[in-house]
Design a protein that fits this description.
single chain; about 65% helix; about 220 residues
């Protein structure tokens, strides 16, 4: 399908974007079910906490009663993991295509991106090539990885605010840690993730508007 899109539009980067839009479109019904499941989990949370308090000295009974509650309410606590799990083989397949397939090397996108299978060569550390030096590879964060970090930051901002201070710190720093980790990855992969993040942000805005209670902080 990716090869067909490439032949259709003549630009491998655009083909990646169109592939991402297709993937997100196919996964949108799953995301709808995920949000519905999350809303159902939020609705039964008071009952689940009551069970935890009632059977706090009997862990086995607590687990049995909790699972019975989920079954009675028609709630699947694992449903929220499905979209994330589905993306893992997709990401791995794109990694194999962009990093290991010889035919995809040296495919240009736009502007300074002349090889989608290589890391972003443009970095603000040398003023985008104005200064005549090459920053060390470990800190040479390109423009595309920075855009990836920004998109991850805004995606995390849409998630419900955790009450735990440690979780808040993790969510605050994780996008920028991922930005450094992904800086050595192929630009094509980052284009996929940036596009996916933008579409996820739009999707979350739509689905949170349908389930506004999900954005309220989770109480202890």
């Amino acid at each position: 399908y990716l090869d067909w899109l490439f032949r259709l539009v003549g630009n491998f980067g655009v083909a990646i974007i169109l592939l991402t839009v297709t993937i997100r479109g196919v996964m949108f019904p799953i995301a709808q079910r995920q949000f519905a499941s999350m809303a159902a989990m939020r609705a039964v949370q008071p009952k689940a906490k009551a069970i935890q308090e009632r059977f706090k000295d009997d862990k086995v009974r607590m687990q049995q009663e909790t699972m019975a509650l989920y079954k009675a309410e028609g709630v699947n606590p694992l449903a929220g993991c499905l979209p994330t799990l589905l993306q893992i083989p997709i990401f791995y397949a794109l990694y194999k295509v962009l990093m290991l397939t010889i035919e995809m090397r040296h495919q240009p996108f736009y502007g300074w991106i002349h090889d989608l299978s290589a890391p972003d060569p443009l970095t603000p550390l040398n003023l985008f090539g104005v200064l005549a030096f090459t920053p060390p590879h470990a800190i040479a964060i390109g423009v595309v990885p920075i855009l990836y970090g920004i998109s991850m930051y805004y995606q995390f901002k849409l998630n419900p605010t955790p009450m735990d201070d440690t979780q808040k710190q993790v969510f605050a720093f994780l996008p920028w840690v991922l930005m450094f980790v992904m800086s050595s990855f192929a630009v094509g992969l980052l284009i996929y993730w940036i596009t996916s993040n933008i579409l996820t942000i739009l999707q979350q805005k739509l689905l949170y508007s349908r389930h506004p209670g999900l954005q309220t902080p989770v109480t202890k």
